[in-house]
Amino acid sequence: xGVDLESVSExxxxxxGSLLSTTLLYPLDTCKTKYQAxxxxxxxxxxxxxxxxxxxxxxxxQVLSLYQGLGTxxxxxxxxxxxxxxxxxxxxxxxxEKSGFKKIGTKANLIIAAAAGACTxxxxxxxxxxxxxxxxxxxxxxxxxxxxxxxxSWSDAFDGLGISLLLTxxxxxxxxxxxxxxxxxxxxxxNSAEKTAITLSAFSxxxxxxLSKSIATFLTYPAIRCKVVIQAADSDDDDTKKxxxxxxxxxSAVICAIWKREGIxxxxxxxxxxxxxxxxxxxxxxxxKEKIAATTWVxxxxxxxxLFVTRGKLKSA
Length: 317
Fold this sequence. Notes:
transmembrane; peroxisome; 11 helices
């Protein structure tokens, strides 16, 4: 049957877009994650505002530590977006071919997106856990990827997997909203009946990406906050005098801790930072993906043609 080149093109452009957006916004992501991970009573909070995290890095001369875990995050982001976009594109095309429909409905789109997201979560969960622990470690004391993963048992590398599977609804909502709005916008702007490679403008892709991600983030934020707390490095991880392992964090224990210490609004702590970061990140990702998708497709076709010609010359020789 061969390789689905269109799905590979979608996956590659999506992964490249994710890599660039993650790198550009990583300091904001580190501040956001450290702020979210702190689950203490109001009088004992180290970070009262998001900017307190940034000020700590500046005052301790650890500004470069805002990039701790960037390599792991980029690796996780690249792999997850490649797997997600490939799975989403491939299953979408397969559904249309098997069903005979010309368009894909919202329900089918949600199911396909959720399935792609679940596969992605299982494959990349260890990297996701490691990057969270590296980001939430004390500034200047973050460990490497291998040391972070092997410090505890391998089962701990899958901390928060249950919530990650639940959060597959986040990209499912986001990309479904984006795809549906994109189709409507392109149908409106299409002036000719010719089937050409029509793409969104950078501004349109940015706006649609921001809108779709805002909706998804607001609906799933309590689960996002719990996941960050579960995956965060323990405060004692950075104290060399106390090396013993902490008890495993469970979803129920984290929910109870947030409820007792911070109340109902604790589940929405850092929502503004999450929306700011994820909206910018997703909007940049989709904008970059839309702009390089055509170039990626041309490159893949060129490589395929080159390999085909080379193989023909070798056979005739």
